[in-house]
Amino acid sequence: MRPSRSPGGRLSPSEGPAGRWPDDHVRDACGVFGLYAPGHEVSRLSYFALYALQHRGQESAGIAAADRGGHIVTRRELGLVSQVFSENDLRTLAGELAIGHVRYSTTGSNAWENSQPVQRSEGLGGSRREVALAHNGNLINALELHEELLERGVTFSSTSDSEIIAAMIATHPAELVEDAIADVLPRLRGAFSIVAMTKDRVVAFRDPHGLRPLAIGALEPVGQDGRDSEPPRYCVASESCAFDIIGARLVRDVQPGELVTLGEDGLQSRIVAGGQRRAFCVFEYIYFARPDSRMNGQALQVARGRMGEILWREAPVQADLVIAVPDSGNPAARGLARAAGLPQDDGFVKNRYVARTFIQPGQELRKHGLRLKFNPLPEVIAGKRLVVVDDSIVRGNTTRQIVQMLRDAGAAEIHMRISAPPIKHPCHYGIDMSTREEMIAHGRSTAEIAAELGCESLHYLSLEGVYEAVGAAAGGRSSHCDACFSGSYPLAGSDGAAGKYSLEEQPSGGDGRRQQAPAPLVRA
Ligand code: SF4
């Protein structure tokens, strides 16, 4: 069912983020997808790829599509993928190439103007450049670049850092979009995995540190005879689970600093920025990415299972039963139970459809708190010494309620085991976390946190344990970012990076310099 919309097609404020159920997880940043595939239903493939990437962002979704040489048409809206697109939308988005995006806001608020793909048209006549762009990540020099563009007379219709990148590419004088990107990319600082399109090609590029994931897939040929004569067609996505759903095959990851072009000549690649410290987000292995995705050669379900095994090795305890906080704690709980030789069961039933609701629970239901999301099973729990496995704790509100629910259901002892180290520092690279002061692990010892949560014991997986689980082949600590655990930011100047709403707070980003927001269906 679609949420009701105002006449302008936007959700009213009461239907916005306030409608989320309480959740104490870090927020995923965004998911991106793109493909060049004449002869395929590009918007339908994009829809299902975004559907597979929905866990990376639930605030808005969008697809831009074009025929070679035609106009780019974009449809974007607040809401889940299944709420945003109708059959009719997909027909309108016909074409031979397309890009898509699901968003959770990390720069700029959850407003329609900040949904993606961002579309920009610059120049006139033969030198006119039309670009649509989808971005996962966060620039740490967004304010500086924004100021510079405003001084050049460039106007903006959003407060997201993604439009800054789109504007830099669209206004660049280079004839080829690849040359424009090669020149712009070294000026961008921070995390970015980007899929963009012009009227005749899809381009994808990744920051030189490779902070956020981006992978290349190959599509199955279409047609009655397998169409061996059809040239190979490629797609790109944040995670390989997007390839599985559309029958594509994972080819490889886009390398840090690499620019790939998907076009009539198949797949072209060039390295446009290299030689910098790699810093892939280690939290992708722990929580963000879907367990059926593969990253750096790792199947994440397997890596998470190993995290559970190591967690048990680091902190065994006398117990009767292992339960997971569903669903994110499931793979580590299975690994821990395997290593412990303990039985595992479902201690909770999770309402799978509660991720986003547009109705507030109200006073009467609010007192039941997390029961709206998890319902404990007293018949499984009562009288047992439990090992309860979750993947992370941020503020601790959810974990505190979980411990209380288990206690109310008759648990004899509750031993929390977390398959990540304590989160003590904010992320400046595209993941929305609380402030340092809100984080339960900030300034507290593990024993103090256990007392706050009301459990008998608490143990976090060590950082060494995380890297052991991920495997040496992924490159170890020197190839990853673990700043939210260690406070060691891989990019200089990250600690002073501007916050999520920085472009809205900027005086020069006010109404006087902004364009009118375009209508939801943009035909440039
Ligand atoms: Fe990932 Fe944490 Fe680094 Fe952010 S700070 S990129 S969440 S490891």
In summary, what is this structure?
This protein is of the alpha+beta class.
Features:
disordered N terminus; 8-stranded antiparallel beta sheet; 24 strands; 524 residues; 23% strand; disordered C terminus
Question: Could you describe the 3D structure shown?
Answer:
With 524 residues, this protein is of the alpha+beta class. It is 25% helix and 23% strand. It is built from 17 helices and 24 strands. The strands form 6 sheets. The protein has an 8-stranded antiparallel beta sheet. A 6-stranded antiparallel beta sheet has the order 5-6-7-8-12-13, covered by helices on one side. The longest helix has 15 residues, at 300-314. It is globular. It starts with 29 loop residues before the first strand and ends with a strand. The model is unreliable at 1-23 and 507-524 (pLDDT under 50). The structure holds iron/sulfur cluster. Iron/sulfur cluster is lined by residues 211, 281-283, 427, 429, 431, 481-484.
